[in-house]
Specification:
- With 724 residues, the chain is α/β, with parallel strands linked by helices.
- The chain contains 25 helices and 31 strands.
- Among the domains are: 215 residues, Anaerobic Ribonucleotide-triphosphate Reductase Large Chain; 64 residues, no CATH class; 41 residues, no CATH class.
- The strands form eleven sheets. Strands 2, 3, 4, 7, 8, 12, 15, 18 and 25 form a nine-stranded mixed beta sheet that branches. The protein has a three-stranded antiparallel beta sheet with strand order 9-11-10. The chain has a three-stranded antiparallel beta sheet with strand order 22-21-27.
- Strand 21 and strand 22 form a beta hairpin.
- Helix 2 runs antiparallel to helix 3.
- The longest helix is centred in the middle third of the chain and has 29 residues.
- It starts with a strand and ends in a 7-residue tail after the last helix.
- The N terminus is likely disordered.
Amino acid sequence: MCARLSNTVAVSSEPANDVEKEDLPLQPASADIWDVKYRLKDKQGQAVDQSIEDTWRRVARSLADVEAPENQEFWYQRFVWALAQGAIPAGRIMSNAGAEAYKPATSTINCTVSGTIPDSMNGILSMVKEAGLTLKAGCGIGYEFSTLRPKGAYVTGAGAYTSGPLSFMDIFDSMCFTVSSAGGRRGAQMGTFDISHPDVIDFIRAKRENGRLRQFNLSCLITRDFMEAVKNDTDWDLVFPASASEVEDTNNTIVWKHLPHYKTNNVVRNDKAQVACRVYKTIKARRLWDVIMASTYDYAEPGFILIDEVNEMNNNWFCEDVRATNPCGEQPLPPYGACLLGSVNLTKFVRHPFTDKAFFDWDAYREVVSVFTRMLDNVVEVNGLPLPGQRDEIMRKRRHGMGFLGLGSALSMLRVPYGSPDSLVFTEKVSYEMARTGFRVGIDLAAEKGVAPVMEEEFEVTTEMLAKRPELAADGIKLGDKLKGRVLWAKYSRYMQKFASTGNAEDVAMLDALIEKGCRFTHHSSIAPTGTISLSLANNASNGIEPSFAHHYARNIIREGKKSKEKVDVFSYELLAYRELINGDAMPYAEDEACKLPDYFISADEVTPKQHVDIQAAAQLWIDSSISKTANVPTDFAYEDFKDIYMYAYDKGLKGCTTFRFNPEAFQGVLVKDKDLANTTYRFKLEDGTEVELKGNEEVEYDGEMHTAANLFDALKEGYYGKF
């Protein structure tokens, strides 16, 4: 590691220029990813986009053409401006907007969730077909699999016993592997599973088998009841909805649960709308907790979705039951839900970086957010979704997920250590200013173009709604009364009502207008992981809400036609900027080549797990969907301390939590530090029985291609060259 300097390091207070797009040429890895993933090419592989500026113009033209003819040129210029100033639409938009002549069957939508998977062979296979069409269009997709009855349950129609949800997940996994997703992007899937399902332990341990469910991210749907049972060391029932005959069987233990997501008529309900559930097994909640934590510690999965918090804080609480998310977890969505994404590059708004005059330009930030909100709303009109249910959902609610990237890089440029108290204040303000600016634009767009249709729908007040929102009864609203969607959305949403408590008169007036008039969209914000758009279009500014993984490291890139991943050296944006503005040519790129960096240059392994959670909590206050965030911990991080991260996240009111610990025996991940590879030995057995040992970063030739030993080991282990 290089030496550190204190915050009082003497640097020039007047750098030649603030960092502008043209001042820092894209590093080779960034330019390469743009060329492979986002640059439009014809069928012969010839470039249509001659430059990144051409990519901006293509996207801006496509989205401006949604406007009224007399306004198209004005908004085209504004959209091009916003793109140059740090508005970065998500990958599907960058790849596919304006590309219809070359890719007519692709979508601009990143995030979808499957329709509810029915507990029948016909239903399951119909969902496989729909998922295949969705992946083919380039969208990621999430599913809940705990709607399927547990392994060993009797299937009356077949006269046999079911093999359980995991065996059907294997079908979806194989389908995803087979379907080549549009734009050179492998399919992305999320599988969620209820913490009370009898097969939950099998789900948690599924990825311990080499090559299994590798086209999935996995997350458990965790409830408050379960977390409290863990805290109190009480029993936990593993249950599944019971048939009428199972309820009548006196040998079965039956409990009643509130399961609004079970819409099928094949379950037994009581007069309180509760579902009869058969208890298959009772275990200690802490035992199940330990199974989850051990798997997450070793394999970084399953993730942790606090599903009660998700539904409690959902703006559409009155018309949705969310049970799944998109593949990275930042978009909890109802059945057939769909959402588009975009991120604002925070490094673009830091003036006089790395100096005692450094500041964040809030006015410029709000202006970009304002224009970007309109741009993302226009994406709804060119969604390209393959299924009618998906198109209906996105047109009815018009949700989009604007987030930001480069938080860690921007904090370094402002000389604020990531995870410090000042960084929490900054993170909350970035989210707050994005939210209030977005909803103000949403009011204007509603007046100009119309509200999201759900805003004008009438909803009859149900017993369930009264139970969720006691304030309805307090306001004199009774069972059977009818309310407009915009009233239930703005006046009785837990999230939207936060604007009433800021003490800002403008926020209160905005909320009143939203109640009275409605909004163009139901959801505005979401923070995605932004992996490849950060690396390419933002010159490797830090991903999403994260600190930079390191300032010099390797990224494992999927190459079309190559069985193992390719290791590519990359450098953090702040390191490149610091070198350019402060040290000039005197400072080498690499952090380990006698460089000197100030101590506000924080990387992921210098952030404590609680600091990771605190940053996420600060942002979540004003993010109306969710956040994809990973708390990185060192390989030697103590297991007992590791377990506490998730309980801390629960206590902080987060909607989810994910961790990553480098574990070369299981996998190495997308981002890798060279020192970890150099310290890891991989053993290969040749056909003649001899064994070869190689360090993870050593190059080796196999099957006519060059690989790092670590990437080759992963490819062999996961079955890309056949069974290992």
